[in-house]
Automatic annotation (TrEMBL):
<feature type="transmembrane region" description="Helical">
    <location>
        <begin position="62"/>
        <end position="83"/>
    </location>
</feature>
<comment type="similarity">
    <text>Belongs to the ABC-2 integral membrane protein family.</text>
</comment>
<feature type="transmembrane region" description="Helical">
    <location>
        <begin position="141"/>
        <end position="161"/>
    </location>
</feature>
<dbReference type="GO" id="GO:0015920">
    <property type="term" value="P:lipopolysaccharide transport"/>
</dbReference>
<feature type="transmembrane region" description="Helical">
    <location>
        <begin position="249"/>
        <end position="270"/>
    </location>
</feature>
<protein>
    <submittedName>
        <fullName>ABC-2 type transporter</fullName>
    </submittedName>
</protein>
<keyword id="KW-0812">Transmembrane</keyword>
<keyword id="KW-0813">Transport</keyword>
<feature type="transmembrane region" description="Helical">
    <location>
        <begin position="90"/>
        <end position="108"/>
    </location>
</feature>
<keyword id="KW-1133">Transmembrane helix</keyword>
<feature type="transmembrane region" description="Helical">
    <location>
        <begin position="195"/>
        <end position="214"/>
    </location>
</feature>
<keyword id="KW-0472">Membrane</keyword>
<feature type="transmembrane region" description="Helical">
    <location>
        <begin position="168"/>
        <end position="189"/>
    </location>
</feature>
């Protein structure tokens, strides 16, 4: 054995001592920043996920666009009649609401299993855990882009012009929120496998109590309590600018407040559980 091939003295090979205090926060933050450096990897993995999901299909991901179009078309006529609204007022609102909710629903649902579905990679490769969260987010961005076709078509028919200045900050807030919410749910989902079905049940309820298929203006009494539903302000800050409207200041205040809570919860839970994630899945 040559001297160069021998282990150097005092060289650390593996540290088994658990981190405490500020070191855990530093390691968690470094995991996130290092994960961003692998953007080519998680983008390719996300695209591969979509290709595998629709392998053998003639239309491929266009089935997403087709199913969304059929859903919106069937719901628009019924609910416009029930709410006594014209299609000109209701169809653009329903279209953007369904598309945004579809992204929220799929991102949250996939977020609960981001780590468990990547267990083979986690057990075989030493890469940042955050890569699997970014992979989930990008995959759902690819999927929602197929539904943008429906939004563009409806907006073109009814001549609705989005407000880009208000859409940009909402898009940034949504991106950060989606990451930390997925980070939170994926960590909890790795420890407790009941998280996924619980979240699925909660999302079904939230679809009806959040202004997705009905406009907020339809509520006369207790409208102020709608802000207690975190999904309402967070969706409204994106939906209103896309429809050429400006959200109220109170909407933004609550949206930012809920966002900060999501960031703190996601980062703290990930920091505390990061060292044990590989053993849970």
């Amino acid at each position: 054995m040559t001297p160069d091939s021998q282990p150097r003295q005092h060289e650390t090979i593996l540290v088994l001592k658990p981190e405490k205090g500020a070191k855990r926060f530093g390691s968690a933050l470094r995991d996130i920043t290092d994960g961003l450096k692998f953007w080519r990897l998680f983008c390719k993995l996300s695209w591969l996920d979509i290709k595998l999901r629709y392998r053998g299909s003639l239309l491929g991901p266009l089935w997403i666009t087709l199913s969304t179009t059929v859903m919106i078309a069937s719901m628009a006529g019924i609910y416009a009649y029930l709410f006594h609204m014209s299609l000109k007022d209701y169809l653009p609102f329903l279209t953007i609401s369904i598309v945004l909710w579809g992204y929220v629903h799929s991102t949250i649902s996939d977020g609960t299993t981001a780590f468990t579905t990547a267990q083979n990679i986690i057990h075989s490769l030493r890469i940042p855990f955050s890569i699997h969260v970014f992979r989930t987010l990008i995959r759902n961005v690819y999927l929602v882009l197929h539904n943008i076709i429906v939004v563009v078509a409806v907006f073109a028919i009814y001549r609705i012009l989005p407000n880009p200045l208000m859409t940009l900050p909402a898009l940034v807030l949504w991106s950060v929120d989606a990451f930390f919410l997925c980070l939170l749910l994926s960590t909890l989902g790795a420890r407790y496998r009941d998280v996924s079905p619980i979240i699925a049940s909660i999302l079904q309820i939230l679809f009806f109590i959040t202004p997705i298929i009905w406009k907020p203006d339809l509520i006369y009494l207790g409208r102020q309590y709608m802000l207690l539903n975190p999904f309402f302000p967070l969706i409204e800050i994106m939906r209103a600018p896309l429809m050429g409207e400006i959200p109220r200041l109170s909407i933004w205040v609550f949206a930012v407040g809920y966002s900060v809570l999501i960031w703190l919860a996601g980062f703290l839970v990930f920091t505390k559980a990061r060292a044990r994630l590989a053993y849970w899945i």
